[in-house]
């Protein structure tokens, strides 16, 4: 009975949260040709403009990649999964307004299993937010345990990765700023930055 709905929901879509990107422009995407110079500066890093060509981002210092999401195991239990699904936008709004929490950027995809890709300044900042009694996360976690617990209607998950300096590389071809390209300047992936191995070797080390 619900198989058609499961197939539809599982398709999912990719979005970029406006709360994560306070500098985003509502204008339609524009094609922008890559130049040999630095083409992304902090004020327009979150623009939806498509950057034509091969680009790479090179974040400096350590940062954290945090993946988080939920799965509607029982699609008919809207009373269970909808409150969980609506908790994340509240947290994103809070994180966008409270920049000192250390949240840098996020991308979200919807489906029966949701996925949010987040970037944080440090694991300490991430853990501090998770345990902050004045922030939105702790009440949402308590509400999940109270409403759902272990009844199986909804699943939640997360993974945390601490990215060490000089241990990352990226490539973006004909893309608007995305992922690490929203937390670090985008540069043309040409010459010494043309290959993945070369980009990894050229990744900035911790400035300290």
From TrEMBL:
Domain of life (superkingdom): Bacteria
Name this polypeptide is given: DUF4188 domain-containing protein
Species: Inhella gelatinilytica
